[in-house]
C-alpha cells in the first residue's frame, strides 16, 4: 500500500542544521510547527476550520520526535496537510515525495468525480510514453487511485475532502525521488494501460540553455528555461533583447519555469518594456493584520532600466509548468498591456519566506504573502487567453 510516511533510515539530501542538543528541544520544535503555520501562513482561510489541520496521528508523532531526522520527517508530513505545493521544507530525504511542479510531468485535476490529466510536460518521460492530456489517472503502483489517495491522507490521520484530492493525485503521480513510477492511465478512448516511468530527479530535461532566442517572421522568440532565480538570466535576457529590431514583436515563453525565482530577475525583464515606474503586482501580508489588527497591502512597481527599452508588442506564453515567479511575470506583463496566452498556470499560492524552527534551525518555507494582479485578481486565479 502507498504510504506518505518517510523512511527515516535513509540519508538526508540536504543537511539539516544541528543546533538542538537534546531530544526535548527537537520535540519542542515539532510541537511548535502548527503554531508557526497558524501565525505565518497567508492562506489559513482555505483550510478546514481556518487553522492548521491536526490529527491524533500527527500529535502522537510530534511528541515522539527526539532527533533531527524524526523532526524533518514530521515537518514534511505536517506541511503535506496544507495541500499546498508551495509549502515545503528546506531539507529533504532521498525518498521524499517529488516537488510539484518542478519534478512533475503530469498535471492532474479532480473533475466530475475522476482524476483527469489536464496537461503533460513537453519532452518529459510521460510525454515520451505517449500519455496525453484528456486521459485519466486510474491507478498508482497497481493501486486504484481512490484507494491510493485515501491511504495517503489516512496515513496523516486526515479525511479525504475535495480540496485534498487533486493535490494528493499530483504528488502520487510525481512519486518518490529515489524510485520509478508505475501509473495506470485511461486514454480518451477508454483504453487502460500501465506505464512505467522514471522519476524526474533522474531526468535530464532538454533545457538547451537558460535563455534561448530565435528570430523569425513573427518576431523574436525568447525562451526562459527554468532560470528565473539565476541572476545570470538578466545578462542573457539583455543580450537577447539587444539583438531585437526596433518595434519587433517579442514572444516570451515562460512555459518551462516551474521552480520560481526572484523579483530582481523578473523586474529586470519587465524593465525593458516601461518608460516610467509602473505597478505590476499587489502584495498582502495577513500575518501582520492578524497580529496587529491593521491590514497591510502594498503595490510593487517595475522601473525602467537606463539605456534599455523596447517598443514592440509582447506576447507571453504560459502553462501548468509556469510557477511562482513565472506566474508573477505573467500577471506583471498583463498589467503592462502584454497578451498572456496558454493553459492555466501552476496556481502556486503567494510568496514564500523561510521560517527556522527555534531549537534545531530546521527551515520551513511557507507562503506568507498573498499576491494579486493590479486589478485585484488573486495570482492563483489569473487565467491566460486561450491561444
Gist of the model:
With 387 residues, the protein is of the alpha+beta class. The protein has helices spanning 23-40, 56-64, 68-80, 125-128, 145-154, 162-174, 232-242, 263-270, 286-292, 325-335, and strands at residues 88-89, 106-111, 114-120, 136-140, 143-144, 181-186, 192-197, 211-216, 219-224, 250-253, 278-284, 297-302, 314-318, 339-342, 351-356, 363-372.
Would you give an account of this structure?
This protein folds into 3 domains: about 1-95 and about 355-365, Transcription Regulator spoIIAA (2-Layer Sandwich), CATH 3.30.750; about 105-200, PDZ domain (Pdz3 Domain, Roll); about 210-350, 2-enoyl-CoA Hydratase, Chain A, domain 1 (Alpha-Beta Complex), CATH 3.90.226. It has helices at about 25-40, 55-65, 70-80, 125-130, 145-155, 160-175, 230-240, 265-270, 285-290, 325-335, and strands spanning about 90, 105-110, 115-120, 135-140, 145, 180-185, 190-195, 210-215, 220-225, 250-255, 280-285, 295-300, 315-320, 340, 350-355, 365-370. The two termini are about 40 Å apart. It has 10 helices and 16 strands. Helix 1 crosses helix 2 (about 55-65) and helix 5 (about 145-155) crosses helix 6 (about 160-175). The chain has about 375 residues and is an alpha+beta fold.
Amino acid at each position: 500500500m502507498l504510504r506518505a510516511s518517510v523512511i527515516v533510515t535513509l540519508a538526508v539530501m540536504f543537511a539539516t542544521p544541528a543546533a538542538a542538543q537534546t531530544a526535548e528541544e527537537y520535540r519542542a520544535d515539532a510541537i511548535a510547527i502548527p503554531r508557526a503555520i497558524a501565525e505565518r501562513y497567508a492562506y489559513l482561510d482555505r483550510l478546514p476550520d481556518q487553522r492548521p489541520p491536526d490529527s491524533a496521528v500527527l500529535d502522537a508523532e510530534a511528541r515522539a520526535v527526539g532527533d533531527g531526522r524524526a523532526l524533518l520527517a514530521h515537518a514534511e508530513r505536517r506541511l503535506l496537510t496544507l495541500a499546498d505545493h508551495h509549502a515545503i521544507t528546506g531539507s529533504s530525504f532521498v525518498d521524499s515525495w517529488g516537488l510539484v511542479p518542478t519534478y512533475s510531468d503530469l498535471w492532474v485535476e479532480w473533475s466530475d468525480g475522476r482524476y483527469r490529466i489536464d496537461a503533460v510536460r513537453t519532452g518529459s518521460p510521460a510525454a515520451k510514453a505517449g500519455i496525453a492530456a484528456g486521459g485519466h489517472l486510474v491507478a498508482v503502483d497497481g493501486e486504484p487511485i481512490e484507494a491510493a489517495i485515501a491511504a495517503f491522507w489516512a496515513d496523516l490521520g486526515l479525511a479525504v475532502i475535495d480540496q485534498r484530492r487533486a493535490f494528493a493525485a499530483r504528488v502520487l503521480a510525481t512519486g518518490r525521488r529515489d524510485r520509478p513510477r508505475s501509473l495506470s492511465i485511461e486514454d480518451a478512448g477508454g483504453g487502460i494501460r500501465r506505464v512505467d516511468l522514471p522519476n524526474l530527479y533522474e531526468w535530464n530535461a532538454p533545457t538547451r540553455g537558460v535563455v534561448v532566442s530565435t528570430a523569425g517572421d513573427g518576431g523574436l522568440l525568447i525562451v526562459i528555461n527554468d532560470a528565473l532565480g539565476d541572476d545570470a538570466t538578466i545578462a542573457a535576457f539583455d543580450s537577447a533583447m539587444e539583438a531585437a529590431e526596433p518595434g519587433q514583436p517579442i514572444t516570451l515563453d515562460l512555459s518551462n519555469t516551474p521552480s520560481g525565482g526572484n523579483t530582481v530577475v523578473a523586474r529586470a525583464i519587465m524593465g525593458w518594456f516601461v518608460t516610467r515606474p509602473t505597478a505590476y503586482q499587489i502584495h498582502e501580508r495577513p500575518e501582520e493584520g492578524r497580529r496587529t489588527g491593521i491590514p497591510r497591502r502594498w503595490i510593487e512597481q517595475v522601473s525602467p532600466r537606463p539605456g534599455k527599452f523596447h517598443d514592440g508588442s509582447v506576447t507571453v506564453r504560459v502553462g501548468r509548468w509556469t510557477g511562482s515567479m513565472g506566474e508573477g511575470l505573467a500577471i506583471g506583463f498583463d498589467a503592462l498591456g502584454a497578451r498572456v496566452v496558454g493553459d492555466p498556470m501552476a496556481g502556486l499560492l503567494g510568496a514564500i519566506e523561510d521560517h527556522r524552527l527555534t531549537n534545531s534551525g530546521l527551515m520551513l518555507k511557507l507562503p506568507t504573502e498573498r499576491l494579486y494582479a493590479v486589478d485585484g485578481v488573486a495570482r492563483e486565479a489569473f487565467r491566460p487567453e486561450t491561444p
